[in-house]
Amino acid sequence: MATETPISPAPLTALPIRVEIFEDFESLGGFKGQWNALAQAVAASPSLSFEYAALGWREVGSARPDAALRVLVALAGEDLIAVWPLYVETGSWGRMAIHLGCGGHEEYAGPIVVRDSRRREASRLLFRAARDQADVLIVHNIAHDNPIREFLDRAPLLKHRGMIRSPAVSAGLTTDWATWMAARSKSFRSGLKYDRKRLSQLGEVRLEKIEAPDRVDRTVDWIFQIKRRSLAEHNITRSWVLHAEALRFFQEVCKASEGVNVYALMAGDEIAAAAVTLESSNTMEYYLTAYNHDLSLYSPGNLLLEDLIALCFARKLAFDFRITGEFYKLRWADSGIDYYGYHLATTPRGAPFLLKHLQRRAVLKTKLFIKRALKGLRGRLAAPKPSAPKAG
Fold first, then answer.
1. What does the angle CA 136 – CA 138 – CA 144 come to, to the nearest 5 degrees?
2. How far is 58 from 75, CA to CA, in rounded Å?
3. pTM of the predicted model, to two decimals?
4. Alpha helices in the chain (DSSP H)
5. Where does residue 228 rank: exposed (0-12), middle (13-18), buried (19+ CB within 10 A)?
6. Over the stretch 29-61, which tens digit does the pLDDT of each residue have?
7. Three-class SS of residue 141?
């Protein structure tokens, strides 16, 4: 389509809902405006925007030799009321349908669906269409209130469902920064103040939003270099961060998508820490981050968090640490957000893949249990023994 399809102002009617499946973004261009307007109306993550999906396909999906684009669009008349960006990858185990993004499968995914009386029927039709695209359907990190969950949960298929709670700071929606910080422990506040004072000896400490295209490219490259160095130090050779197309994707999406931003904590002219954030109308996601290890004594990552969370309070946003619960996140968090992930075998051919996935998860959980148990045992063995009471 040559022009964008406008959002119709007509009242809701009993127009039949249909799902169309798009296999290229050129055909989808006419729906770009409606797609992004719907995403904004339901406060969807920028990882579900038109630009994010289009660049995900251009830089990541199309680089896979056996991948095919499948964007599911639910329409009522000419109005776009739901969209689900997927791609299908074919392997020896069959066809797998998965969210279209940076290749890390860590974004908040699932469909975005209008919030009116058409919501449930649109979700039902989208699920049926997605199920028919592949032998395995993988849905990462969908919100607890996403209407597609009803049909994922009810599906009479071999499946696995997992839940994870993302730590968050949600007080920024209802209170002010000074009041919230005053309720933190004195040692916590003093530590931040002390680290910032010491870091300022290297130059002015300030938060910068990086907007110039050349600086965006350099800052994103800086983040990737540090993350890749960390992977090498831990002998990790398989990660989406190591892929050249992942770096290109973030460099491009940070310039093309309004909700994907780059921030840097500067100490003089040097980057102390930096992050790529995904920002909707009510939430900032702390998506991709790194800090200068040469400055680790000053806790630059923690200072970056302080400035970003303060910014969220000023803008009345929640701050979402995302899908892992490390201690440094929990020190800040005042709430949690539940997200769900699904693996479904939609045909008999997909069953072996899913069974292998379940086996792999069981092995990982066992290893994690043993690691934690050994860590606890070492802690108990290293603890000083209580002194024996003196006689008399």
1. 140
2. 25
3. 0.84
4. 25-28, 32-41, 50-55, 119-131, 148-154, 177-182, 186-199, 213-233, 244-256, 300-315, 327-330, 351-382
5. middle
6. 899 999 999 999 999 999 999 999 999 998 877
7. strand
